[in-house]
Amino acid sequence: MPYPYVPSFNVNHDDSLALKVQLFGATPGNWAEISGYVTQTTGVFIPFSDIQKIPNPVQGASSLTVNVPSTGLDTEVVATVIIRVAEVKIWPNVLTIGQVAGQEIKQTWVAHPSADGQGGSQAETVPASSATTQHVAVPGGPPGPTVTGGTLQMTLAWGPPPSDGGA
């Protein structure tokens, strides 16, 4: 989980903001969903939201710039930035026009099936090389899921929970 920090931000001549966001513990190449707000004691409340690819840092933390449109920020008053960052996987969902299911509905879109006919457009194909088995440890109990990968298939098996419910 990345730990965000805003060391500074600039107010541009068009009154937009450029927030410098540092991400400690983020994985370069993954996506970061950044949201939050800037507040002032004068009642200014400026929400922002952005999604960016996490860059590979030259050294230290990854650094991103979040641009916020014209804000009305008072340049003579202290500002507080509240920020939330999550590393995310972006799943595109292609929707095609479907049949309308009722008179009260104007239009319906449905998930476009994947090329292999399994699942929607968010289905992911994961190539597997040689057969391997990995066990996922469950704290205080026996192994949980077992993932087996082979050249043609990937299976996920889950054993029964411990008799004490895992407590």
Fold and architecture overview:
This protein has strands at residues 3-11, 17-24, 31-40, 45-53, 62-68, 79-88, 95-97, 109-111, 132-135, 145-149, 154-158. It is mostly beta strands and 167 residues long. The protein folds into 3 domains: 3-88, Immunoglobulin-like; 93-123, no CATH class; 126-160, no CATH class. A 3-stranded antiparallel beta sheet has the order 1-2-5, with no helix packed on it. Strands 4-3-6 form a 3-stranded antiparallel beta sheet, with no helix packed on it. The protein is flat. Mean pLDDT is 75; it is low at 121-131 and 134-161.
Quick structural gist:
It is built from no helices and eleven strands. It has 167 residues and is mainly β. The strands form four sheets. It has a three-stranded antiparallel beta sheet, with no helix packed on it.
**Distance separating the two termini:** 26 Å
Mean pLDDT: 75
Shape: flat
- Figure out the total of helices: 0
If you compute it from the alpha carbons, what radius of gyration comes out, rounded to the nearest whole angstrom? 23 Å
Percent helix among the residues?
A: under 10%
What's the structural domain tally?
A: 3
Strand order of the largest sheet: 1-2-5
- Chain oligomer state: single chain
Please mark out the parts with pLDDT under 50 across 5 or more consecutive residues, or reply none: 121-131, 134-161
Kindly state the number of beta strands. 11
The CATH topology of the largest domain turns out to be Immunoglobulin-like
Beta-strand residue percentage: 35-45%
Structural class: mainly beta
Q: Give the biggest beta sheet.
A: 3 strands, antiparallel
